[in-house]
């Protein structure tokens, strides 16, 4: 009777266990392949991120240099503008005096 039970169990259990074992084995292999592909993609992305960060750092440094250069030029232009405004005011004053003198001369030297 034990032999019959063993044979029945082997006939019923073995056809179920073999596909389950094969399924588990293929799942493990597929998981390892997927993990390897993901690792490859992640490492590629990390390299790209590092490259982009370096490019951003270079661009930021270049941007800072440009901003510093522009502010220096702006300071120079502000100084020139201040000098020109002073010169303009002085020229306006002299022009008013010249006009007054010309009017006096045209009237015959009388004030």
Q: Your description of this structure?
A:
The chain has 111 residues and is an all-alpha fold. The protein has one domain (1-83). It is built from one helix and no strands. The chain has one helix spanning 2-106. The protein starts with a helix and ends in a 5-residue tail after the last helix. The mean pLDDT is 89.
Q: What attributes does this structure have?
A:
mainly alpha, 111 residues
How do the SSEs run, as a string of H and E? H
The whole-angstrom Rg is 46 Å
Please give the count of helices. Answer: 1
On the 0 to 100 scale, the average pLDDT is 89
Based on CA inertia axes, which overall geometry fits? rod-shaped
Helix content: over 70%
Termini Cα gap: 149 Å
β-strand amount: under 5%
Low-confidence stretches: none
Number of strands: 0
The total domain count is 1
In short:
By secondary structure, the protein is mostly helical.
Give the SSE map.
Elements: H1 2-106
């Amino acid at each position: 009777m034990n032999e019959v039970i063993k044979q029945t169990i082997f006939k019923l259990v073995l056809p179920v266990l073999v596909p389950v074992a094969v399924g588990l084995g293929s799942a493990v292999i597929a998981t390892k392949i997927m993990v390897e592909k993901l690792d490859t993609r992640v490492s590629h992305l990390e390299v790209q991120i590092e490259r982009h960060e370096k490019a951003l750092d270079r661009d930021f440094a270049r941007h800072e240099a440009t901003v510093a250069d522009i502010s220096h030029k702006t300071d120079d232009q502000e100084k020139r503008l201040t000098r020109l405004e002073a010169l303009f005011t002085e020229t306006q004053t002299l022009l008013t005096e010249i006009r007054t003198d010309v009017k006096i001369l045209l009237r015959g030297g009388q004030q």
